[in-house]
Amino acid sequence: xxxxxxxxxxxxxxxxxxxxxxxxxxxxxTAKEKPLKGEVIAVGKGTKDEEMVVKEGDKVLYxxxxxxxxxxxxxxxxxxxxxxxLAILS
Length: 90
Fold this sequence. Notes:
- By secondary structure, the protein is mainly β.
- Helix content is 0%, strand content 38%.
- Strands 4-5-1-2-3-6 form a 6-stranded antiparallel beta sheet, with no helix packed on it.
- Strand 4 and strand 5 (75-81) form a beta hairpin.
- It starts with 8 loop residues before the first strand and ends with a strand.
- 18% of the residues are buried.
């Protein structure tokens, strides 16, 4: 399936949730937190007032409640406005 976001929207694939802590403690599924970073899969063309800063392949941080969850070919994705993205990771 090929998805092209409209206007200033961005399609993001969230990073996998952490399986265990730094010290080695395994985190059960019920205690895992939703990841706040991911990879940009597709971007819209922007609006006349706002050009697109993010591009495909960028690693980004976004807010905890940002975007709308959608499922594409069995994989969870988020579609959100560019303004919901807090930072680009380098």
